[in-house]
Amino acid sequence: MDLHALIRAEAPVAEQQRALTEPVLAALVDHGVHRMIAPKRYGGAELGLPEWSREVQELSRSDASTGWTAMTTTISSSLAWYLPQEAADEVFSDPRALIAGTAAPLGKAVEADGGYRVTGRWGWGSAVAYSSWVIGGTLTPVGPRLAVYPREDVTIHDTWHAAGLRATSSHEFSLTDAFLPSRRAVWPIGITPGIEGPITVFPYFSFLAVGVASVCLGVARRAIDEIEALAVEKVPQYATSRLAEQTGVQIELALMEARLSSATAFLHEALSAAWDAALTGAAAADPVKARLRLACSFASGEATDVAQKAFAAGGGSSVFESSALQRCLRDVHVAAQHTVVSRRMLETYSMLKLGLAPDMTRF
């Protein structure tokens, strides 16, 4: 079965069990989705980020939770570029191994021989339950680090009872007094990476914003697909013509398409500009980074509104579990709640344009 057909077929079951199904997980790994932007040394495809964004959009169009899982695991696999080679070989030598986690430095480390002893608890652990290795942002005596722990060190807490993205299994996870070798702790800013490449020049903290925006765009595209299909079939109660023949629906659908296409084009343009700079080995200038984050937040907001309008246009048909429109509505709203695409990002862009010297350290 085609990958996208499989994802769509399995999505209702995944939604009910709050976890991706085994056939989908196996297919994602078989297709190398989890290593789309990882180095070729570890079975990665080394996709450029504009192409990666399009792939995430298409996967999310098939199912938001699957697209989100692909997005988070590929971002996590980018650590293969930054880790010292010994650590990268340890974590990524198995080409089928997944890695996922949370960057927030909620782990507390104390020095130990050869590394640290770490205790912490993290939220938003998308795909951690499926992973062989887990990233937990950790505050060490020398500053915050993205630390990598074997899955057996980690306890998962069943906390992901959410309105949308239900099958991402974004549970909380914790570890207690776990040993962390120094080699498996890295901060991906201002270092010499283990493997050089354009991705290590791209602004690291923009990865996730691009990924979240790409998921949102894909879900909104699915919502348009669904309302188009419904419109040519449905004659609303007390009406004599199909939705497709009603002027109001025609105008609404055209505006949905225009808004989504515009937001998608803006993200692609801003992302391509930042990626082109990375291809030359040059760090993106602050205006380029700010414009990219503007595009990410704008895309997420527009996608949310488009999915809302598609849901409303479907009328009563949208509210049933059998309708993908209700799932699109819930999924895109949950995705767009992520802090990396919040409306606060718009302030930073304007402050920079107006000469107010915003804090760009997380851009």
TrEMBL record:
Sequence ranges assigned to domain Acyl-CoA dehydrogenase C-terminal in this UniProt record: 211-342
Keywords: Oxidoreductase
GO molecular function annotations of the record: acyl-CoA dehydrogenase activity; flavin adenine dinucleotide binding
Any Pfam family hit: Acyl-CoA_dh_N
Keyword Transmembrane: no
Recorded superkingdom: Bacteria
Annotated Acyl-CoA dehydrogenase/oxidase N-terminal domain residues: 14-74
Protein name in UniProt: Acyl-CoA dehydrogenase
Lineage: Bacteria, Bacillati, Actinomycetota, Actinomycetes, Pseudonocardiales
